């Protein structure tokens, strides 16, 4: 209950920062994209993890505003990095959009007005949407996703494989990629089944011409297995943990 009030204040006072975590294209070991991840800098409690406050923000309807704060900050940061030549012209960025955004008629005008006048556009942006959200049958979700696709945004399914339901949405919506949930990678060493599941997910994604990102790769062994299985895009602590913008800038300059 205390946290509820504080989250409302946090939105009003914009107590949010963005952390950056690269997604590496292992063909050529270049950075494919960078995911932006929200951090709540609480004035007394310090940093609060999104796992703690995102569910609450969704419940309170504050997630719309938080996502939009994060999106704006991320766009402004990437615009700066582009201008300074710190990131290459084809390097993208990934942002998380909560389900509630897809159910709104003002999401497209919001996205477009935010990038308007900046050195970035829809082709630079990957929108990450959690799998479970795509299961709801909604005309507005369909309309928004189709329009995002037509404008040049990419749409990736986040936490892929955890929605325990029909995969029919992959045919129904314009989806460009999936992010295999890190629970599959965590079980890779102990479980032959996990490896075979990942193998079949990648085969399916290839057949549907979807890009595949694997999240949560922490060890060289996991990277080797994922490479052997044909996963091209890798994200995880093996490369780096989520970084501040200053750290990220150093990382980009030092990476090929
Ligand atoms: O960065 P971290 O692993 O702590 O993130 C935990 C969860 O919070 C992840 O599931 C991630 O998708 C989600 N998350 C991070 N940033 C954002 C954001 O800006 N908006 C939304 N809706 N979710 C986010
Ligand atoms: O659900 P989503 O994919 O948006 O979550 C991203 C979250 O996963 C971030 O909070 C990030 O900190 C976390 N993450 C990224 N790479 C790794 C990793 O290699 N190991 C673990 N444990 N978490 C990771
Ligand atoms: Na995400
Ligand atoms: Mn993600």
TrEMBL record:
Chain ranges of the EAL domain: 1-256
Name the record gives this protein: EAL domain-containing protein
Protein's organism: Leptothoe kymatousa TAU-MAC 1615
Region of the whole protein represented: 273 to 528 of 545
């Amino acid at each position: 209950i205390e946290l509820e009030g504080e989250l409302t204040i946090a939105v009003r006072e914009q107590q949010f920062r963005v952390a950056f975590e690269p997604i590496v294209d292992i063909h050529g070991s270049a950075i494919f994209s960078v995911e932006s991840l929200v951090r709540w800098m609480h004035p007394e409690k310090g940093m609060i993890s999104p796992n703690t406050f995102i569910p609450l923000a969704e419940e309170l309807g504050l997630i719309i505003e938080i996502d939009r704060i994060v999106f704006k900050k991320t766009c402004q940061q990437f615009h700066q990095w582009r201008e300074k030549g710190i990131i290459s012209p084809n390097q993208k960025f990934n942002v998380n959009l909560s389900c509630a955004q897809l159910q709104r008629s003002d999401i497209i005008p919001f996205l477009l007005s935010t990038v308007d006048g900046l050195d970035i556009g829809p082709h630079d942006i990957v929108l990450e949407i959690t799998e479970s959200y795509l299961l709801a049958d909604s005309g507005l979700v369909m309309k928004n996703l189709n329009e995002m696709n037509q404008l040049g945004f990419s749409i990736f399914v986040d936490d892929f494989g955890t929605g325990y339901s029909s995969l029919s949405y992959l045919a129904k919506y314009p989806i460009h990629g999936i992010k295999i949930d890190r629970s599959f990678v965590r079980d890779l060493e102990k479980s032959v089944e996990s490896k075979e599941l990942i193998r079949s997910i990648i085969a399916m994604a290839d057949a549907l011409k979807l890009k595949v990102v694997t999240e949560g790769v922490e060890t060289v062994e996991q990277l080797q297995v994922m490479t052997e299985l044909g996963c091209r895009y890798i994200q995880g602590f093996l490369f780096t943990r989520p970084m501040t913008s200053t750290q990220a800038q150093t990382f980009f300059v030092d990476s090929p």
